[in-house]
Write a structure and sequence with these properties.
Distance between the termini: 16 Å
Strand order of the largest sheet: 4-3-2-1-5
Shape: globular
Order of helices and strands: EEEEE
Oligomer: single chain
Number of strands: 5
Largest sheet: 5 strands, antiparallel
Structural class: mainly beta
Radius of gyration: 11 Å
């Protein structure tokens, strides 16, 4: 399943992706919103842009994110 712009997500775990940096460990448990899912590619391994509440906007691996309601 691909992410879509505007969906609410949570960073729920550390990613296995090589793009994951140690400072990102602090993002675990933070909620945010998808701002750029890069739907033109729709590659499940690509990074997607997420605006995290109180933290800023980052490009994160998809395996660390889950949808929230």
């Amino acid at each position: 399943m691909g992410f879509r712009k505007g969906q609410k997500v949570e960073v729920f775990q550390k990613s296995e992706d090589e793009a994951w940096e140690s400072y990102m460990d602090e993002f675990i448990g933070v909620h945010g919103m998808i701002t750029d899912p890069d739907t033109a590619i729709n590659d499940p391994d690509s990074l997607i842009e997420v605006s995290l509440e109180g933290v800023g906007t980052y490009r994160l691996p998809q395996d660390c994110l889950r949808l929230i309601k």
